[in-house]
Write a structure and sequence with these properties.
The protein has about 120 residues and is mostly helical. The protein contains five helices and no strands. Helices cover about 85% and strands about 0% of the residues. Helix 1 (about 5-15) packs parallel to helix 4 (about 70-80) and helix 2 runs parallel beside helix 5. The protein is elongated and about 75 Å long.
């Protein structure tokens, strides 16, 4: 378990370094449109999957080959930890689209009232 703590620290650092990317995701979803909200999460998922695979292979070389279940659980944990930025980007895109939908309804009702 002590090998997972540096991985957790590194995953949290990647999450904090992604703050400008979260702001860009907010701007893309708000101004470029809803259809572009999956561009940054896909890029983030690919990059984080590469990082997690590097750590999984490094961790697998440290443990003994008899602990297959421990390796499997550690690999899943590492993969999920490195996907935190992707989950945040998806959450920002989802919340931004949910916040803009009521405004469209209000605009449509205003347009119908004018007719």
């Amino acid at each position: 378990m002590k090998a997972v703590l540096p991985i957790l620290f590194f995953a949290l650092m990647i999450t904090l370094w992604g703050i400008p990317v979260y702001i860009i995701q907010l701007l893309i979803t708000k101004f470029a449109g809803v259809k572009y909200r999956f561009i940054l999460p896909v890029i983030s998922a690919i990059i984080c999957a590469i990082f997690s695979m590097i750590f999984i292979f490094t961790l697998a070389s440290l443990d003994s080959p008899n602990e297959l279940f421990g390796r499997l659980v550690s690999g899943i944990l590492i993969f999920l930890l490195f996907q935190i930025p992707t989950f945040i980007l998806l959450l920002v895109g989802h919340l931004t689209t949910k916040l803009t939908e009521p405004n469209k309804d209000v605009e449509r009702m205003k347009h119908l009232d004018l007719e």
